[in-house]
């Protein structure tokens, strides 16, 4: 009996590795190998375009500590992530719950909130440069008609990053909404019906039934959303190039600048590795705090 | 007396009717304005794509174009071989999607339903792909592809994206939601793991698969920097590169044509989404989870 | 004979587009052993001012290939100037550079640092290049008296102004000095209470460091040498202080973006704009008012720095390829082609003889604004040709932004940026020396 059990376990193990193998082959070539190389690069002076490489030891990492811009960029990245992600996920959750019904017109709403995801970032960035124009942009026109003061948005180092945050919420709420909507489809509807018949309020149902039931996806969205904030690169690249006064420079853009514009692959690699350690720490924290609260229907 | 009661009754009935109506449709009161707000940039894209260059910034000209200037569309298409680009975009995104669907389904099942040593470590390794900034791996991947002889081929835009830590994570979460009674029952019926995966799990997580599919297609459909770096020939390039031609760096943008180009690039996606979001609804109605 | 024939079918196959992806997926099919007679060249170029440039360049390349037996040029669109430079450098890193490319002239020292450029001084001297090219343009590809490229699509910043706005205020001519600029900008600014309706002046953001170098030159300073920047000199500090004065007076936008500032001008939100001559065609054709073009106002003298780029030839390739590459670069910059290119794009023709062509004279009659830019070229020089120029540009932009936002004083900002950038240049140079 225990022999058969051991064999079953070994078979399960072999099956698992076989199932992971296709992914691992590609990951090894296109993810792990570059990451290993970047660790190695970060210890060297590597110039893009030049095959010669010089040993530096920890110099790139020491430079990072003294780099005024690095700390500013880190702050900007934290600001962007801590505003965009909670706001767009909250918006997405409300939208998903609202749109998870058979009401007429839901298809139109879903498309209306999702289409920004499809707009190529070049075009979306340019579009919002226009929307934010201080003189004639529709956003300032709207502010005026509401009796609010006009802002210089992308021209103002205090407002440029919040402007990109607002745009990101427009662009990504639909994205998270779609994922959450898919999760809601997996929730057994009899639970709702029972709660509704018991006279449980809508707010109560959301907090005590819906959210716990889709917690695995919510957990996924929070982690992926945090990493998704890397996407801001596209908008910084198209709209502001990090300016004015470095107010919109974020880590992914700074890595690109150093690696490709300044050809400083060594330093860019050090930055990327620092970011990786930072993100691993953050994800670890999320996994320990939120991950424990996640409830999976398939597991007892 | 009875008249009054009658009147009262009918008012209250009418009020009840209104309340019922409102309760059924109050959502529209919130959603409609919000949706309009969300849609307004799209309206601007479409309207601008029909304007002349002078009209775009002429504040005296008003919001709507004076005449519908459809010539921006053919003139956009003449900038680059958009037909070839479209075919290539379809090949690239569909190949990536097919590859990803296979790799993530297998891997997610292992992570969700099997026990094996090193599971947590391996899962973290999968997530590394999402955590590491893509610009830090561009150079090495370029070199690797060159050594494989793949630079300036369609495959160069496909192979780096076949594995997806993102998709694996997303699908694993859904697989873990599938009630274990279902897989236990299938196992008692003599199904092996792959059969259970195919007959029980995949049908149940269809909404997730579709959601991931949409996201994957949108992401790679719009990818610009990587295709620009690894391709040279017009014959193998994709749509965003054509769009890049219109978002000129040196002078101000060519707004009408940029917006026409955007419409051209987005339309196939939008169409796909409208079709699939119906399937999205249908898929759960047929699976019988609910 | 046979090889020509198979060549044709292959090209037809490529042209059909549909088949191309499948063909190119099989590496062996596209690169068979070739007969020696045809030299294949790759040419990487950016598209800066209009998507149509892509069509124009493709057309020129077809013409060239049709008229030159034994040379086949493949034109590769490589994105913006930045993208182009990155694509070329990445290819250099794996030892397979394209035969020619068209980068921004500021990248000269970067490519020289990589030992990537063919010295074409001798060919140019035995040709008419030194006689016929406009000096200001030719010089953008010169380092230590050696020539490393043929100027192809030069541009400079110029002052664009809204003639209708000027007319409404009875201002007859564009400002010619910094003081006049300040006065004019103040006069053109419109405020409704606290709300700004129109800036007097906007300096195109994202490239404002380029304009700033023009201000330094107008104040008698070339703010860099081959291995250092000189932004901490009094002339530069005075220039930035002048900007700050205009911002404080509320007549100049403290910051903008490149695309945004062009929009602002077309929409009438700013009456004057510093932007590239490359934008002339777009601004002229898209503005609902008459656009004026003038020299950038002077302080001690006229001055501007050159944008745009030269065609450069790779050093690490066979002599046959180098020769073919020279033939191609020479052809792209010949009198007729430069005249045609200039008319089609709004870039400035690099040859004196091009400007004397009847079509060019006619173009100037139709678009007199184009001449202003050409004339300003004689007062202009290369733009920030130092190693690590990209980092230098970003540091300067940041210093200017922070000054105009009131975070730091002009002198402190420029002194810091100069120290930072010079440290960086030293680091790069030390590396090059090994």
Task: Describe the model.
The complex is a heterotrimer of chains A (300), B (290) and C (434). Chain A has helices at residues 2-41, 59-66, 68-99, 106-118, 121-131, 138-145, 160-184, 189-197, 202-213, 215-228, 232-240, 251-261, 265-289; strands at 44-46, 53-55. The mean pLDDT of chain A is 88. Chain A is mostly helical and 300 residues long. Chain B has two domains: 2-48; 75-287, MetI-like (MetI-like fold, Orthogonal Bundle). Chain B has helices at 2-48, 53-57, 72-77, 82-113, 119-131, 138-147, 165-175, 180-188, 193-204, 206-221, 225-230, 239-244, 255-287. Chain C is α/β, with parallel strands linked by helices. Chain C has two domains: 36-155 and 309-375, D-Maltodextrin-Binding Protein, domain 2; 157-305 and 387-433, Periplasmic binding protein-like II (D-Maltodextrin-Binding Protein, domain 2, 3-Layer(aba) Sandwich), CATH 3.40.190. Helices cover 50% and strands 16% of the residues of chain C. In chain C, the strands form five sheets. Chain C has a five-stranded mixed beta sheet with strand order 2-1-3-15-6. In chain C, strands 8-9-12-7-13 form a five-stranded mixed beta sheet. In chain C, α12 (208-218) crosses α13 (234-248). In chain C, 56% of the residues are buried. Classes of the chains: A mainly alpha (300), B mainly alpha (290), C alpha/beta (434). Chains in contact: A-B, A-C, B-C. The A-C interface holds A 45, 47-51, 54, 69, 126, 129-130, 132-136, 144, 149-150, 152, 154-157, 239-246, 257, 260-264 and C 82, 86, 89-90, 92-93, 95, 110, 114, 116, 194-199, 205-206, 253-257, 259-260, 263-264, 267-270, 388, 390-391, 394, 397-398, 401-402, 405, 407, 428, 431.
SSE inventory with pairings:
The complex is a heterotrimer of chains A (300), B (290) and C (434).
Chain A: H1 2-41, E1 44-46, E2 53-55, H2 59-66, H3 68-99, H4 106-118, H5 121-131, H6 138-145, H7 160-184, H8 189-197, H9 202-213, H10 215-228, H11 232-240, H12 251-261, H13 265-289
Antiparallel strand pairs in A: 1-2
Helix pairs in contact in A: 1-13, 2-13, 3-7, 3-10, 4-7, 5-11, 7-10, 8-9, 12-13
Chain B: H1 2-48, H2 53-57, H3 72-77, H4 82-113, H5 119-131, H6 138-147, H7 165-175, H8 180-188, H9 193-204, H10 206-221, H11 225-230, H12 239-244, H13 255-287
Helix pairs in contact in B: 4-7, 4-10, 5-7, 8-9, 10-13
Chain C: H1 2-15, H2 20-24, H3 27-30, E1 39-45, H4 52-67, E2 71-77, H5 81-93, E3 100-101, H6 108-113, H7 121-126, H8 129-132, H9 135-138, E4 142-143, E5 146-147, E6 150-155, E7 157-162, H10 163-168, H11 178-188, E8 190-192, E9 195-203, H12 208-218, E10 224-225, E11 228-229, H13 234-248, H14 258-266, E12 270-276, H15 280-286, E13 291-294, E14 304-305, E15 307-313, H16 319-332, H17 335-345, H18 352-356, H19 358-366, H20 369-376, E16 380-381, H21 389-404, H22 410-433
Parallel strand pairs in C: 1-2, 1-3, 9-12, 14-16
Antiparallel strand pairs in C: 3-15, 4-5, 6-15, 7-12, 7-13, 8-9, 10-11
């Amino acid at each position: 009996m225990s022999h058969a059990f051991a064999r079953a376990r070994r078979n399960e193990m072999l099956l698992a590795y076989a199932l992971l193998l296709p992914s691992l082959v590609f990951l090894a070539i296109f993810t792990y190998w570059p990451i290993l190389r970047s660790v190695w690069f970060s210890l060297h002076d590597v110039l893009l375009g030049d095959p010669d490489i010089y040993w530096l030891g920890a110099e790139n990492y020491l430079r990072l500590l003294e780099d005024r811009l690095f700390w500013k960029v880190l702050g900007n990245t934290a600001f962007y992530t801590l505003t965009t992600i909670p706001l767009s996920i909250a918006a997405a959750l409300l939208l998903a719950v609202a749109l998870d019904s058979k009401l007429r017109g839901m298809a139109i709403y879903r498309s209306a909130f999702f289409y920004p995801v499809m707009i190529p970032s070049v075009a979306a960035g340019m579009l919002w440069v226009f929307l934010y124009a201080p003189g004639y942009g529709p956003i300032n026109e709207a502010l005026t008609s509401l009796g609010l003061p006009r802002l210089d948005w992308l021209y103002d180092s205090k407002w440029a990053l919040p402007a990109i945050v607002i745009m990101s919420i427009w662009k990504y709420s639909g994205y998270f909404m779609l994922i959450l909507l898919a999760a809601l489809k997996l929730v057994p509807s009899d639970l709702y019906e029972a709660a509704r018949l018991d006279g449980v309020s809508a707010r109560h149902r959301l907090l005590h039934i819906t959210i716990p039931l889709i917690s695995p996806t919510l957990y996924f969205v929070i982690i992926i959303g945090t990493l998704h904030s890397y996407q801001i690169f596209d908008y910084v690249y198209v709209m502001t190039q990090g300016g004015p006064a470095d107010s919109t420079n974020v880590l992914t853009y700074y890595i690109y600048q150093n690696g490709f514009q300044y050809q400083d692959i060594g330093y860019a690699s050090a930055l990327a590795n620092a970011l990786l350690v930072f993100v691993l720490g953050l994800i670890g924290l999320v996994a320990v705090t939120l991950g424990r609260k996640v409830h999976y229907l398939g597991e007892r | 007396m009875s008249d009054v009661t009658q009147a009262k009754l009918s008012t209250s009935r009418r009020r009840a009717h209104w309340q019922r109506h409102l309760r059924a449709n109050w959502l529209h009161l919130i959603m409609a304005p919000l949706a309009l707000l969300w849609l307004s940039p799209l309206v601007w894209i479409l309207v601008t794509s029909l304007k002349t260059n002078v009209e775009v910034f002429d504040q005296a000209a008003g919001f709507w174009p004076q005449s519908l200037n459809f010539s921006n569309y053919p003139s956009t298409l003449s900038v680059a071989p958009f037909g070839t680009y479209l075919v290539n975009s379809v090949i690239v995104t569909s190949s990536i999607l097919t590859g990803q669907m296979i790799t993530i389904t297998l891997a997610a099942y292992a992570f969700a339903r099997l026990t094996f040593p090193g599971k947590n470590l391996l899962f973290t390794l999968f997530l590394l792909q999402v955590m590491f900034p893509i610009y830090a791996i561009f150079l090495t991947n370029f070199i690797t592809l060159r050594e494989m002889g793949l630079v300036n081929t369609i495959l160069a835009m496909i192979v780096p994206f076949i594995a997806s830590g993102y998709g694996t994570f997303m699908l694993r979460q859904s697989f873990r939601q599938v009630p274990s009674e279902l897989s236990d029952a299938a196992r008692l019926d003599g199904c092996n793991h792959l059969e259970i995966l195919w007959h029980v799990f995949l049908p149940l997580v269809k909404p997730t698969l579709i959601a991931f599919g949409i996201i994957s297609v949108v992401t790679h459909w719009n990818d610009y920097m990587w295709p620009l770096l690894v391709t040279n020939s017009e014959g193998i390039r994709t749509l965003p590169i054509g769009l890049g031609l219109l978002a000129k760096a040196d002078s101000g943008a060519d707004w009408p044509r940029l917006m026409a180009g955007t419409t051209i690039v987005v339309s196939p996606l939008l169409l796909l989404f409208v079709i699939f979001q119906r399937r999205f609804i249908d898929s759960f109605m047929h699976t019988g989870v609910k | 004979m046979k090889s020509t024939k198979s060549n044709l079918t292959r090209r037809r196959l490529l042209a059909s587009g549909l088949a191309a992806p499948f063909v190119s997926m099989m590496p062996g099919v596209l690169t068979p052993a070739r007969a020696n007679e045809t030299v294949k060249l790759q040419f990487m170029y950016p598209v800066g001012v209009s998507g149509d440039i892509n069509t124009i360049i493709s057309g020129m390349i077809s013409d060239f290939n049709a008229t030159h037996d034994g040379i086949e040029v493949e034109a590769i669109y490589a994105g913006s100037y930045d993208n182009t430079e990155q694509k070329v450098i990445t290819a250099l890193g794996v030892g397979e550079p394209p035969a020619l490319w068209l980068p921004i002239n500021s990248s000269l020292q970067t490519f020289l640092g990589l030992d990537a450029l063919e010295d074409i001084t001798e060919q140019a001297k035995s040709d008419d290049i030194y006689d016929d090219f406009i000096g200001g343009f030719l010089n953008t590809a010169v380092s230590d008296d050696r020539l490393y490229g043929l100027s192809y699509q030069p541009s400079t910043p110029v002052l664009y102004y809204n003639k209708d706005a000027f007319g409404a205020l009875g201002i007859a001519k564009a400002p010619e000095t910094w003081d006049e600029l300040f006065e004019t900008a103040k006069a053109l600014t419109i405020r409704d209470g606290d709300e700004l309706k129109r800036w007097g002046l906007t300096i195109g953001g994202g490239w404002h460091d380029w304009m700033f170098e023009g201000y330094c030159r107008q104040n008698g300073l070339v703010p860099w040498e081959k291995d250092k920047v000189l932004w901490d000199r009094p002339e530069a500090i005075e220039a930035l202080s002048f900007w700050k004065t205009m911002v404080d007076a509320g007549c100049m936008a403290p910051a903008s973006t490149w695309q945004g500032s062009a929009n602002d001008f077309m929409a009438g939100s700013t009456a004057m704009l510093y932007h590239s001559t490359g934008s002339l065609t777009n601004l002229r054709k898209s503005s609902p008012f008459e656009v004026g073009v003038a020299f950038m106002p002077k302080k001690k003298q006229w001055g501007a720095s050159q944008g745009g780029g030269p065609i450069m030839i790779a050093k690490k390739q066979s002599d046959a390829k180098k020769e073919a590459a020279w033939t191609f670069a020479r052809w792209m910059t010949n009198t007729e082609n430069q005249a045609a290119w200039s008319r089609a794009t709004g870039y400035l023709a690099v040859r004196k003889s091009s400007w004397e062509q009847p079509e060019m004279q006619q173009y100037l009659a139709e678009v007199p604004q184009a001449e202003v830019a050409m004339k300003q070229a004689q007062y202009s020089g290369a733009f920030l040709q130092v190693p690590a120029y990209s980092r230098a540009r970003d540091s300067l932009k940041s210093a200017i932004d922070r000054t105009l936002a009131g975070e730091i004083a002009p002198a402190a900002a420029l002194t810091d940026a100069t120290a930072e950038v010079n440290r960086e240049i030293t680091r790069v140079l030390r590396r090059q020396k090994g």
